[in-house]
Amino acid sequence: MDKQLSNYRRDGFGLWAVCLKETGELIGQCGLTWQEVAGTPVLEIGYLFRRAFWHKGYAIEAARACKEYAFTHVKAEEVYSIIRDTNSASQKVAERNGMVRCGEIVKHYRGVAMPHDVYRIKNGAA
């Protein structure tokens, strides 16, 4: 929570809690964060949901809202999603959000190299 509050103070945005409208139950998070691609900071649409809520349309709904917010309120020229190369479900979310694969990077977590696909959409695109 402290990290997100710090992001909001610094950038004016961060991750949002995603709650079911019907019950208020917290099912995940989504939002805008700064990430690095090839040494350059990029604005990323990120989303993470509890497994019980996968494949129900929540990720695409959240990702589209983040894209709209980035273009309308943040005035971003483009946004990215950086997705593990084995995560086909999240890749499909990015594609359904109008994004196209534009590259790949390798992230290192606890000494393990993990390839990621980079998706992007420019403001004004589909």
Quick take:
By secondary structure, the protein is an alpha+beta fold. Helices cover 27% and strands 44% of the residues.
Explain this structure to me?
This protein is 27% helix and 44% strand. It has one domain (2-122): Aminopeptidase (3-Layer(aba) Sandwich), CATH 3.40.630.30. It is α+β, with helices and mostly antiparallel strands. The longest helix is centred in the middle third of the chain and has 15 residues, at 58-72. The chain has a three-stranded antiparallel β-sheet with strand order 1-2-3, with helices on one face. It has helices spanning 2-11, 58-72, 88-96, and strands at residues 15-19, 26-37, 40-49, 78-84, 100-109, 112-122. The mean pLDDT is 91.
**Rg over C-alpha atoms, rounded to the nearest angstrom:** 14 Å
CATH hierarchy class name: Alpha Beta
Q: List segments where confidence is low: pLDDT < 50 over at least 5 consecutive residues.
A: none
Beta-strand content: 35-45%
**How many beta-strand segments?**
6
Q: Which sequence of strands runs across the widest sheet?
A: 1-2-3
The CATH level-2 architecture is identified as: 3-Layer(aba) Sandwich
Largest sheet: 3 strands, antiparallel
Number of helices: 3
Looking at the structure, what is the overall shape? globular
What number of domains? 1
The termini sit apart by 34 Å
Overall mean pLDDT stands at 91
**Helix-strand sequence:** HEEEHEHEE
Into which percent range does the helicity of residues fall? 25-40%
